[in-house]
Amino acid sequence: MQQDREIKYDILRILSMFAVILLHVNATYFDVKGEISFIWEIENAINYFTRFAVPCFVMISGAFMLNKKKGILSIYVSAIYKILIPFLYMTAMWVVIMIYQCIKGADFVGDLLLPILCGNYGALWFIPMQLGLYLLTPVYMAVIEYLGEKKYFFVGVLLVWSIISQVLTKSNASYTIGVVGCFSSYYLLGGVLYSYIPKEYNRTRYIILLLLISVIVLIIRSLGFRLYMIDPYVSHFSPGVVVFSIIVFMLFKQSQIKYAPKIISRISKNSLYIYMIHRIIVIVVTKILDSAVENELLKIVMAFIMTFILSWLIAEIWIEIRDTLNQKYQIKQRISDYLCNKYSLQ
Fold first, then answer.
1. Which of 52, 131, 218, 325 has its CA 20 to 30 A from that of 186?
2. Residue 1: pLDDT above 50?
3. CB 215: neighbour CB atoms within 10 A?
4. Mean pLDDT throughout 302-327?
5. Whether the predicted pLDDT of 171 surpasses 70
6. So what's the pLDDT on residue 117?
């Protein structure tokens, strides 16, 4: 058991990781514009109830990055070492996969060139967006400090703008100012909610509100309203998903969870690497199951379990190799020295 970390956020991070894996497994079979049936309704519910994953990932990052008062050098070293370098490895792997698909007959422009240019391949669109947030973290810290109590109003306005902006935009590049700017609302929201103490907290009311919103959203979707189901950027800013995600974050923030097995923090630390690798595993696992299992819902459950286990094992090996190389070649220290000498970061 452990108490040196804020374990409730570790649990939320793991829950979000489970949700994003289930979301992508489900997406293999779920046709947004498909004919409504019992299976469609189940897959539609999975699609909705797992959408909190990315907003909560971003809010957790904002909660810690904007409140731990890290120096600029520490923030950028962490971004390069833990995010950018692994992202480049995964990008190279996906380029190889997409070239192979083109050789097998896939469209060069649509299946290789555009995904690379837009940063939208293998569910890795999240990484350039996250890097953008890290890059802007010192600015956000200064803005929050300058605004004082007005920060709540500012974040609220930014969130409303994001909800409207994302459903209207035609851009689909993950690294654009629009995408990073919109997800900044979740990032800043996590930062301000982390230190926010509500005057009155009633867990039951939060849960009732969460369930009520979920029922309304699922009914609206069943009636054919698909406006916020276009792409990964838009879908995370559906008003229902926004409120759902905030409530989930607040439920964990206000929870009294203080102890958990050490494996919880271990999986939590590996969550970004599990995220990076899981999409490839989903493709492999679903292809295997498609020829072995007929029931679609059973395939989703089995693919989810298999994807998590395999992604976790690969992430463990990946981090072990990373740490070994870092210990041998002092990679992290070299990055720090370079940024310090080149840009005088502290």
1. 218
2. no
3. 10
4. 97
5. no
6. 78
